[in-house]
Design a protein that fits this description.
The protein is an alpha+beta fold and 402 residues long. The chain has one domain: Orthogonal Bundle (Cytochrome p450). The protein has 17 helices and 12 strands. A 5-stranded mixed sheet has the order 1-2-8-5-3, covered by helices on one side. A 3-stranded antiparallel sheet has the order 4-12-9. The protein has a two-stranded antiparallel ribbon with strand order 6-7. The radius of gyration is 21 Å and the shape is globular. It binds protoporphyrin IX containing FE.
Length: 402
């Protein structure tokens, strides 16, 4: 469909189209070339696909607000149920983020490394003798939830249930725009769960040093409301779970596709940090981040009006040819840190250190224990969501070992 508002008639982009989810990169290349500021009339949103434009929008929080949430679809009152600081602008955002950020710094997160490694090995080991497994269902979907659960005190028997709600929350039917009953029910089920958990934990609290205890402590001191605490539990269970799971799948897939790069990494494991960064740049697990336009603004000759919705397409920005040399080649020695996979500016991912550590440790253990894995491409299945990018099923086979 052509648009009167965008700067081209040559491109139509539907972020709900399953064909787009399979391989969005050619679509984004066309958008960057012909319609870097794209307007979709059918759903009524703008899309920015160039690195510079996304960067400027992330930095200009007065014009591009988070109050209607980070999903492409605006949530009319994103903080009405359980407030989450991802849905806030300064000064509220600044106040809550300040409480959390020190607990998520690399030196604090580093203590989890051995736990993550042991968990990764314990999840892979039962499958080693079989020579096949589903790398998402049997491994990548389980580990991040387990790690988050240790941080927010979700007991092991409850983890599948909480992960199920997180999955339901982001699930989109083909062509679905906006939230459906399944998404909303999952949100409230999680709310009830974290309400009970927080109340129970708060009664036992004795100055523990972990992230959820710090949040409960802040509630006791009147810095947060009980609803803020519930929102925080839901936010971590969603933000810290799905994205990391999907990045492990994306990285396993890209290393399998580019076997020379996989071999390079096996030969020199010290490249792991760079390989994770390159996966974040080349095939990040968050596609786009939504913002609400607060005042009229012009970008590349296009006029965005107050009240409109805009998607900052970060996986397109990370492939912008004007920003990265050979942007479409997967090169684990590249060492670029200027990708946009974790966003930019005041909302940039507070869990980035944890995500980097989890993905690096998981990939180290995969390459150590099953270095010759082959993916059954016909069995790959994807999540269909405009914001999340990655697989729900990654069937692999490998040489069985005792
Ligand atoms: C590969 C994994 C991950 C990716 C790709 C990712 C991506 C992102 C992105 C793009 C944002 C910016 C949202 C915005 O600008 O509105 C963000 C924010 C956030 N992420 Fe992550 N994330 C990942 C892992 C994690 C983990 C492991 C955690 C927590 C344990 C986490 C917690 C958060 C939180 C709480 C925010 C909100 C920060 C704020 O609003 O100030 N993320 N993430």
């Amino acid at each position: 469909m052509s648009s009167a508002r965008t700067n081209t008639t040559q491109v139509h982009f539907d972020p709900y189209d399953h064909a787009v989810h399979d391989d969005p990169y050619p679509y984004y290349a066309r958008l960057r070339q012909h319609a870097p500021v794209y307007y979709n009339e059918e759903h009524g949103y703008w899309l920015l696909s160039k690195w510079d434009d996304c960067y400027a929008a992330f930095r200009d929080v007065a014009t591009f607000s988070s109050i209607a949430g980070p999903a492409l679809e605006a949530q009319q009152d994103a903080n009405a149920g359980y407030p989450m600081f991802i849905n806030m602008d300064p000064p509220d955002h600044t106040r809550i983020r300040k409480l959390i950020q020190p607990l998520m710094l690399p030196q604090r997160i580093k203590v989890l490394e051995q736990y993550i490694r042991d968990k990764a090995v314990s999840l892979l080991t039962p499958h080693l003798g079989n020579g096949y497994m589903d790398l998402t269902q049997d491994f990548a979907a389980l580990l991040p939830m387990d790690v988050i659960s240790t941080m927010i005190h979700v007991p092991e028997p409850d983890q599948d249930m909480v992960r199920g709600w997180a999955d339901d929350l982001i699930y989109r039917e083909d062509g679905q725009f906006g939230l459906n009953e399944r998404n909303i029910n999952a949100y409230f089920a999680m709310g009830n769960y974290f309400d009970e958990l927080a109340t129970e934990m708060s009664e036992k609290l004795q100055g523990e040093d972990d992230i959820f205890s710090a949040v409960l402590q802040a509630e006791r001191q009147g810095q947060l409301t009980h609803k803020d605490v519930i929102g925080f539990g839901i936010l971590l269970a969603i933000a810290g779970n799905e994205t990391t799971t999907k990045l492990i799948g994306n990285m396993s897939y890209r290393l399998w596709q580019h076997k020379d790069q996989r071999q390079l990494l096996i030969n020199d494991p010290s490249l792991m940090g760079k390989a994770v960064e390159e996966t974040l740049r080349f095939d990040g697990s968050t596609q786009m981040i939504g913002r609400q336009v607060m005042k009229d603004v012009e970008i590349r000759g296009c006029k965005l009006k107050a009240g409109e919705r805009v998607g900052l397409c970060i996986i397109s920005a990370s492939r912008d040819e004007e920003k990265f040399d050979n942007a479409n080649s997967f090169d684990i020695t590249r060492g670029s840190r200027d990708h946009m996979a974790f966003g930019k500016g005041i909302h940039s991912c507070v869990g980035a250190s944890l995500a980097r550590l989890e993905v690096a440790v998981c990939m180290e253990e995969i390459l150590r224990l099953i270095p010759d894995y082959e993916i059954d491409e016909a069995g790959l299945q994807r999540t269909h969501n405009p914001n999340v990018r990655g697989f729900t099923h990654v069937p692999i086979s490998f040489t069985p070992r005792k």
